[in-house]
Write a structure and sequence with these properties.
By secondary structure, this protein is an alpha/beta fold. 25% of the residues lie in helices and 14% in strands. The strands form four sheets. An eight-stranded parallel β-barrel has the order 1-2-7-8-9-10-13-14, surrounded by six helices. The N and C termini lie far apart (54 Å).
């Protein structure tokens, strides 16, 4: 499996050229003192409509330490918080994000296709969409306004969460220029920002390089090309990079292992693990990933990760940083294991397996990790072959409202 990854990655590097060498992050990289974070992916897209204010507020109330979101450039040069290059997947409209103004995007129903436990669902006539119409007042949720279910701007989110760390991913419509345009807009917006709790990432290395030119004080994660080069050859990462944000598996290879995390930590980089079809978003997998000593997990189900943290007694970020627990010390590495299997912690005893959360809907048994059908650079669609996920029951007091638009 590693041979296949090396071959494909080498081809990518030859096609794209090598990444400009940088230097290691500062010795006091603050993100190494923040383990272990619950970095709610899109606000937790299996439990709430992705990239909405409702999802972000809910995740923070559950205990998430950081919010993860995506930005796309709008027709009027603003930055919309939405994953895809089109509005088709998550809203009740169709078309390219780049063809709408920010005002038009805010007015859309971003909860239209949301199904609890399954994120967005279009092809199941029996699926229930309990928050459909919440943007227009057809459904009410206690403590939330209809606007919380529209497409927000990045500025909307940063103003609503001034003290919550935010991970911002630069998206595009598939062309290099679209990524660069979004990077320039973001760099201009953050050029004068004094926030020290932001990380900017992207699959597109050139977009990150351009962003760094405009806002060098803002921390970044490595782009895809730089990350692959580092993984294969230990090549230095570009200036400004403080974290490696990697999938659990890639092309059948287990990427997030204790050995990889130890190497990154020794080099001064934090490791943030994302799932998004590369492994099941379930309690068992969350527990296995926590034991590799990563600095953050990006769950689609932040409430489940909170239960896993509680069950394992996992340390959480505190003011001034949290030192790693003893079993995550760099002088206690684990013995190598088969790359297809999760890496066990350094202690000789088996860790206590986290208890699966009970659910009135009857959670399905966790499934084995399945590799995405596309490479991690394909960010405009959800990877095919995503494992079946347990249903997550909405508990936010949803009720139907008589009003209709």
């Amino acid at each position: 499996m590693r041979t296949a990854l090396v071959a494909s990655a080498t081809a990518l590097l030859l096609a794209c050229g090598t990444t400009a060498a940088g230097s290691a992050p500062e010795p006091d990289n603050p993100w190494l003192g923040q383990r272990v974070m619950n970095m709610a992916h899109s606000g937790g897209e299996d439990e709430a409509p992705m990239n909405t204010m409702y999802a972000f507020e809910r995740a923070e109330e559950l205990g998430a330490d950081m919010l993860e979101l995506d930005v796309q450039l709008t027709a009027d040069g603003d930055l919309a918080v939405i994953h895809d290059a089109t509005v088709d997947d998550s809203t009740d409209h169709t078309g390219r994000v780049a063809d709408f103004t920010m005002e038009q995007l805010r007015a859309m129903d971003a909860a239209h296709w949301f199904v609890p436990g399954r994120s967005t669902v279009h092809d199941d006539p029996d699926a229930e969409h309990p928050l459909r119409g919440a943007r227009y007042g057809d459904v009410t949720v206690s403590g939330h306004e209809p606007s919380d279910f529209g497409v927000p701007s990045l500025q909307d989110v940063l103003e609503r969460f001034p003290d919550t760390p935010v991970n911002i991913e630069i998206k595009g419509s598939g062309t290099p220029q679209s990524f660069l345009a979004a990077a320039e807009a973001l760099g201009s917006r953050l050029a004068d920002s004094d926030r020290t709790d932001l990380i900017v990432g992207s699959f597109d290395d050139a977009a990150l390089a351009r962003f760094h030119e405009l806002a060098p004080q803002v921390d970044m994660s490595a782009g895809q090309q730089a990350m692959i080069s580092y993984y294969l050859t230990d090549a230095p990462l570009p200036d400004g990079v403080v974290a490696l944000q990697v999938p659990i598996t890639y092309s059948g290879l287990r990427v997030v292992t204790r050995d990889f995390v130890d190497r990154a930590h020794e080099d001064g980089y934090a490791v943030h693990a994302w799932f998004s079809g590369s492994a099941p978003d379930d309690a068992r997998t969350y527990g296995e990933v926590v034991e590799t000593c990563v600095d953050a997990l990006m769950p689609a189900r932040p409430s489940v990760l909170e239960e896993v943290f509680a069950d394992l007694g996992t340390e959480r970020p505190t003011p001034g940083g949290t030192p790693p627990r003893s079993e995550c010390a760099l002088d206690q590495p684990t013995e190598p294991t088969d790359p297809g299997e999760p890496t066990e912690p350094g202690e000789p005893t088996e860790p206590t397996e986290p208890t699966e959360p009970t659910d009135p809907g009857g959670p399905a048994e966790p499934t084995a990790p399945a590799p995405p059908s596309t490479g991690p650079g394909d960010d405009t669609t959800t990877p095919a072959g995503e494992p079946e996920r347990p249903r997550v029951v909405q508990t936010d007091g949803i009720s139907a409202a008589p009003a209709a638009r």
